[in-house]
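User: I'm putting together notes for a lab meeting next week and I want to include a structural view of one of the chains we've been expressing. I don't have a solved structure, so I'd like a prediction I can at least talk through. The sequence is below, exactly as it appears in our construct file.
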Amino acid sequence: MFFQHCMTLLVLIPTVLIQLGTEGSTEIVKATTCQYQNVTYTARQTFKPDPCTFCKCPRNGGEARCAVMDCKWEPHCLHFATDPGICCPTCLRYGCLHSDGKVYEVGSVVSRSNCTKCYCPESGGRTVCEVTQCSRPRCVDHVVREGSCCPSCPNGHNCQYKGHIIPTNKILDIDRRRCRCKRLKLSSGTSLFASCRMKLYWRAKH
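Assistant: Thanks for the context. Below is the predicted structure for the 206-residue chain, given as C-alpha cells.
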C-alpha cells in the first residue's frame, strides 16, 4: 500500500486597516495576515492544518507557504496502524511481497515447483528461493519422472558409442571394436564415457 499526500493550494491575502486615533492626528497601520480554511493567521505564524502539512505565514502576510510530508512506502507490510494525530501509518507486522503482488506471512511457502521452493523468511522482506541442484546422470537414457526434479536412470548406468548404449557391466562389439563404459572423475562428480579398442589389440592385451 502506498501512502502519498497531495499539496494543498493555499491562501487568500486579507489586509486589515486599523485606524489609530491620537490627539490632533490619525495614523493608519497595516496588519497583514494569511487565511487558510476560514482560519486567519498572523504574519510569521507557523501552523499545521493537518498532521502531514506544515505552513507558515510570511512576515508580510499573503499566501501561506506550506510543505507536505510524504509517507514512506512499506511494500512488505501486512498490517498497518493509523492514528488521526499522526501523519504516516505504522507497520505492525511485516511479511513478504512476492512477484504475484501478494504479501505473505513470514515462514509461509510462497511457491513450489519440482526444483524450486520460494518462502518468506522469518525476518520478512524479500522472498527466498531454493533451487535443487541435480547431479549429472550416469546414463544416456535418463528420464525425469513426474513430480521429480532430478533425472534418474531406470535402465541403470550406461554410456554411448555411435548410437549404441553400453551398460556398465557389459562389453559390446561395435564396428570391429570392443567397447565398455569407464568411469571418469570430474570436478562436478563421476561421469561415464565409452572406451573402445580394436578387437585384435584387445585380445592381444587380454
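A couple of points you could mention at the meeting. Residues 77-131 form one domain. The CA atoms of residues 33 and 153 lie 88 Å apart.

User: Perfect, that's what I needed.
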